[in-house]
Amino acid sequence: TAVLPSEMLVRAPLGTIFREDCGEDVEVRPTEVFGSGQALPPEYAVWPQGVSIVSCRGEGPDARIQIDPGVTDGLLRELFYPIRVATLHNPTEQPAVNHWSLDFNGEASEPFEGFVLWTFTRTSLLTATTGRSTTVTGEAFFVNPVTITFRPRNTVRGAGMIIQVMSPPSWEIAPEADGGCKIMMQ
Fold this sequence. Notes:
Layout lengths: L5 E6 L14 E2 L24 E8 L2 E7 L15 E2 L13 E6 L2 E2 L3 E2 L7 E7 L18 E6 L35
Antiparallel strand pairs: 1-4, 1-6, 2-5, 3-4, 6-7, 6-8, 9-10
């Protein structure tokens, strides 16, 4: 039982970034911790009333959460308490070592497996030619079709779904007469 204010250290995989002031990113309410309005599964204990999250400080892939048990008995031993901490950024690619761990009240968890990032795999970008335009001649810019291939981790379907392609700042997407751009999907 933790009955004095204590720090919980959450260690995430490299590439994960918690906000520096992550206090509002911590969730323990039973109807919110698994998503808004989601009931707490029966195997989990409700976070005790009176035990409060005082602060959270993100330091890259580490979040230091200050927990104050107040005048309660604190977090009781052998109970399964859920806690959610939002990240500012996930790694840009699946970490080679995808493990998380917790330290709290003089105890440490074994590293446990993280979640699979929803990232594209087998991505590539090919141009029709390596030629380039120049502003010196005054000619119209050279149009160079680009082929992008990717494999989504999840099915992309439904109205309003968007795949956003961002080019480097020095590139310009050639507009059609109507202001749109030409795209061909196969």
